[in-house]
Specification:
By secondary structure, this protein is α/β, with parallel strands linked by helices. Helices cover 44% and strands 14% of the residues. It folds into two domains: 53 residues; 286 residues, Vaccinia Virus protein VP39 (Rossmann fold), CATH 3.40.50.150. Strands 3-2-1-4-5-7-6 form a seven-stranded mixed beta sheet, with helices on both faces.
Length: 391
């Protein structure tokens, strides 16, 4: 009985994929009558609705499951993982290959461009979660003070060692610290950069409050992170409503069905006690409106929102482009340029890019309950020690 059911399921999936294109062609056929167009259009809406119901049910279930997995996170596992298992981004480039390095280089070019626009001459900036200091590498000619900060000792040592071999006008120093407890005075920086960091934090709202504290009035906060409204891994022909959900969900967080919360692989068992269940750490995809509201509560007014990285790195298209060498990298640059200029699609990139300015004090000295929906926001889980600092 197993084989017939399997064949039936395969046949149903093929029929579902074929129905929408057939109905779309029927509705758009030049010689079709008004009645034929109406019937085909109604059928098309019915197919899209059925596909979306399944998509949303699966997405909500997966989101709830990942949120539960995130509850397993703890500070000790977090600390050991990021100090003992995570390589620097330049070390990861050797593992990923040239295509994915090319995609990441685009992000650092974007960040460096924002710094150039907003860092005044002689100003100071903090690169929170600096990794290999790839932002600093791109602004060495600027007259300013750069502090690279990271949580992992290996990362900060790598960045500091590399920096000593580089020239330029930019004055650079490096600090090891925790983003929830920044070892800097109020109003220390004109610009704070935090790129692909906030999604990894147990309590991101505490880091945002700290960033707002160390920024000077009218200072600029530059952030990138994973986008929960990224383009669906399904064709808009068969799953149009999923695409519309992702676009609208950037402004209406409750519409988002599938929202990743954790890294899909548990922390290395060698880093947790034998009697402890698997531990999963945050890898949260952010929703623009929700994150923007958190920034606003901290006194940060977001004046720019866009997205980047098309197509998704986990897509079949990206895998094909990866195999095309230099040609693939040229093609993906063209796709990126077109996608960023296409309405609706331009809000569906894999990463958020947000620029905010400090306009006033936060709504409270510490993040109030509910400012972030994560499971650790109200129960005090997070940094329990003074931030480790190293010059």
């Amino acid at each position: 009985m197993t084989e017939p059911r399997s064949l039936s399921a395969v046949g149903r999936r093929i029929a579902e994929k074929a129905a929408a294109p057939i109905l779309l062609v029927a509705a758009a056929r030049p010689r079709a009558s008004a009645r034929q167009r109406l019937v085909a259009g109604a059928g098309l809406v019915a197919v899209w609705t059925a596909a979306y119901r399944r998509y949303r049910a699966r997405g909500l279930a997966q989101t709830a499951h990942e949120y539960d997995l995130l509850r397993t996170a703890n500070w000790d596992a977090f600390t050991r993982h990021y100090n003992e298992r995570v390589p620097t981004i330049e070390e990861e480039f050797d593992l990923w290959g040239e295509y994915h390095q090319h995609r990441h280089e685009m992000r650092y070019d974007l960040l460096a461009g924002a710094v150039r626009r907003h860092l005044p001459a002689g100003g100071s900036m903090l690169d929170l979660g600096c990794g290999s200091a790839l932002v600093a590498d791109r602004i060495l000619d600027l007259d300013g003070d750069y502090i690279g900060m990271d949580f992992g000792g290996h990362h900060i040592n790598y960045a500091a060692t590399k920096s000593r071999s580089l020239g330029g006008r930019l004055r650079r120093s490096f600090v090891r610290a925790d983003g929830e407890r920044l070892p800097f005075a109020d109003g220390s920086f004109d610009v704070v950069v935090m790129s692909e960091v906030i999604e990894h934090l147990l309590r991101p709202e505490w880091a945002v409050w700290e960033i707002a504290r160390v920024l000077r009035p009218r200072g600029t906060f530059v952030m990138t992170t994973n986008n929960a409204s990224e383009v669906p891994l399904r064709s808009p022909v068969t799953h149009l409503f999923a695409w519309l959900e992702k676009y609208a969900g950037a402004y209406r967080p409750e519409l988002i069905s599938a929202r990743p919360w954790v890294w899909p692989v548990a922390v290395d068992r060698a880093l947790v006690p034998d009697d402890m269940p698997d531990v999963y750490l945050p890898h949260t995809h952010h929703i623009h409106a929700q994150t923007r509201a958190m920034f606003a509560a901290a006194g940060l007014d977001t004046f720019h929102f866009s997205t980047f990285e098309f197509p998704p790195p986990q897509s079949a298209t990206a895998r094909w482009l990866d195999g095309q060498g230099e040609t693939g990298r040229r093609i993906v640059d063209l796709i990126e340029a077109v996608a960023q200029r296409t309405p609706i699609v331009n809000k569906l990139g894999c990463h958020l890019f947000m620029l905010s300015t400090k306009t006033g004090p936060p709504v409270a000295p510490e993040p109030p309950p509910g400012v972030w929906p994560g499971p650790f926001s109200d129960n005090g889980v997070g940094s329990e020690q003074e931030a480790p600092v190293a010059g």
